[in-house]
């Protein structure tokens, strides 16, 4: 293999003209012959036993060229990339220039890692929010905990909003049952809005054992088969269950936490909420700084890098759907989207992520940031403790070069944040927070009483 020419093009592209010589190509043709001969029927020979010369005489010497190129191209291309000392991005666009028994020449046009000219990355300013946690926030968290601890009790009365009605139901369109309109012993929370509009409201007032026909008209934006249609649901209430919300007292605190008193639980919740919100504020501040640095740097981002980022985003999304038991094709059908439209929508965020990554790598290079062996081992140990795994097992999943790169990116972010200027939120935001803090003070006072 010989690199005949390296041509730098616009927008971070390079065209490599590469020649694969006769000896190298002949070896590839021989491999192609051995692979394909079993599929060829030559008169007078058993399958796979016909000499190469005979096959070439019948079909032409070019018969094995395509397979030979397919086999030899990847190695030739990668060797050319190394020899030309270019950092390629994505897959090349390949043009076959010439091919004969003496070898072949191809031209590979490929995106290369772009040059980045950083703007200001020290002393960058961005808005940083303020963290205030009051009694109202703590009480909201307590309410969620109480809802999780809520018990359901069967009651002998009519259904009210907020109850769970255990029902049998079946829907009919002009007297004919329709698909997906039937359920048995279904727990329906009245007021949840989980059923078609008008359904839950008509359950209110019914008692266990009572049956009723509900007249329902489906919304216009419903499934095409039923959109806008008037139907009848035959409903029977089997049971009525009411929620029993626990009282907010010391006993409640003991039941839902490791604390002995409600006061201790509230103090712990306030501490955790504060930490969570501080982490959110810090992350938002970091993101704002990185966005600013990335937007102000000079760099032509190759389309190949953006495409690779979109591919990764799509793969992650498909994996999340699959983990939730939702096949990707079904998701697209339910949401009325296509993979093409999703990729188009992801293009903007993908470019933004690529620009941020390029900016961080430029800062790492500018500041000569490195991760020491001790730091790498410490991070492996931290991850092992976090996931309850042995360090050697973590090393099997995360390569050292990947971990080292991430540590360097973290150092770059820390450097940017340490040298940044935090701006106060706008006045209207402060006014909202002041108003909220006054409510929290009133709530705190009420709690103290």
Could you list some keywords that capture this structure?
449 residues; alpha+beta; Alpha-Beta Plaits; Chitinase A, domain 3; Trigger factor, domain 2; 3 domains; five-stranded antiparallel β-sheet; four-stranded antiparallel β-sheet; 11 strands; 21% strand; extended
What topology does this entry show?
Elements: E1 2-9, E2 13-20, H1 22-36, H2 52-59, H3 65-84, E3 88-100, E4 103-112, E5 125-127, H4 135-148, E6 151-154, E7 164-173, E8 176-189, H5 199-203, E9 211-217, E10 230-244, H6 250-256, H7 262-296, H8 303-323, H9 328-335, H10 339-367, H11 373-387, H12 391-397, H13 400-418, E11 421-423, H14 427-448
Parallel strand pairs: 5-11
Antiparallel strand pairs: 1-2, 2-4, 3-4, 6-10, 7-8, 7-10, 9-10
Helix pairs in contact: 1-3, 4-7, 6-7, 7-10, 8-10, 10-13, 11-12, 11-13
Largest sheet: 5 strands, antiparallel
CATH homologous superfamily grouping of the largest domain: Trigger factor, C-terminal domain
Low-confidence stretches: none
The number of helical runs is 14
Large-scale geometry: extended
Number of domains: 3
Per CATH, the architecture of the largest domain is Orthogonal Bundle
Radius of gyration: 34 Å
By helix and strand content, what is the structural category? Answer: alpha+beta
Which percent band covers the strand fraction?
Answer: 15-25%
Distance between the ends? 85 Å
Can you write the helix and strand succession as a string? EEHHHEEEHEEEHEEHHHHHHHHEH
CATH class of the largest domain: Mainly Alpha
What quaternary form is this?
A: single chain
Q: Would you tell me which CATH topology of the largest domain applies?
A: Trigger factor, domain 2
User: Average pLDDT, to the nearest integer?
Assistant: 91
Helical amount: 40-55%
Number of β-strand runs: 11
């Amino acid at each position: 293999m010989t690199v005949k020419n390296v041509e730098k093009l616009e927008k971070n592209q390079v065209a490599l003209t590469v020649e694969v010589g006769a000896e190298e190509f002949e070896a590839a043709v021989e491999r192609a012959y051995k692979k394909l001969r079993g599929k060829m029927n030559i008169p007078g020979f058993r399958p796979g036993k016909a000499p190469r010369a005979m096959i070439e005489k019948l079909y032409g010497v070019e018969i094995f060229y395509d397979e030979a190129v397919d086999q030899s191209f990847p190695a030739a291309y990668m060797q050319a990339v190394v020899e030309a000392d270019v950092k390629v991005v994505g897959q090349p666009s390949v043009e076959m220039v010439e091919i004969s028994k003496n070898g072949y020449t191809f031209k590979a046009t490929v995106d290369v890692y772009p040059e980045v000219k950083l703007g200001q990355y020290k002393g960058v300013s961005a808005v940083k929010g303020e963290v205030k946690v009051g009694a109202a926030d703590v009480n909201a968290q307590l309410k969620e905990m109480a809802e999780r601890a809520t018990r359901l009790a069967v009651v002998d009365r009519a259904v009210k909003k907020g109850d769970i009605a255990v029902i049998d139901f079946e829907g009919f369109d002009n007297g004919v049952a329709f698909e997906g309109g039937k359920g048995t012993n279904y727990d329906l929370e009245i007021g949840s809005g989980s059923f078609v509009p008008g359904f839950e409201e008509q359950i209110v007032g019914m008692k266990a054992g009572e049956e009723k026909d509900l007249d329902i008209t489906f919304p216009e934006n419903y499934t095409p088969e039923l959109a806008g249609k008037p139907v009848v649901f035959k409903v029977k209430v089997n049971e009525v269950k009411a929620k029993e919300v626990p009282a907010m007292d010391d006993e409640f605190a003991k039941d839902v936490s490791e604390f002995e008193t409600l006061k201790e639980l509230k103090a712990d919740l306030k501490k955790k909420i504060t930490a969570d919100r501080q982490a959110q504020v810090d992350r938002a501040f970091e993101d704002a700084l990185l966005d600013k640095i990335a937007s102000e740097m000079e760099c032509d981002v190759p389309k190949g890098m953006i495409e690779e980022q979109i591919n990764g985003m799509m793969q992650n999304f498909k994996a999340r759907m699959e983990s939730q038991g939702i096949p990707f094709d079904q998701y697209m059908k339910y949401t009325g989207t296509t993979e093409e439209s999703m990729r188009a929508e992801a293009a903007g965020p993908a470019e933004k992520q690529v620009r941020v990554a390029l900016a961080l790598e430029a800062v790492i290079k500018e500041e000569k940031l490195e991760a020491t062996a001790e730091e790498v081992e410490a991070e492996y140990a931290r991850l092992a403790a976090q996931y309850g795994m042995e360090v050697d097992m973590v090393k099997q999943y995360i390569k050292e070069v990947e971990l080292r790169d991430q540590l360097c990116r973290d150092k770059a972010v820390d450097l940017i944040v340490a040298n940044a200027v935090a701006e106060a939120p706008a006045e209207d935001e402060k006014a909202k927070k002041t108003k909220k803090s006054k409510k929290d003070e009133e709530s705190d006072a009420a709690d103290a009483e």
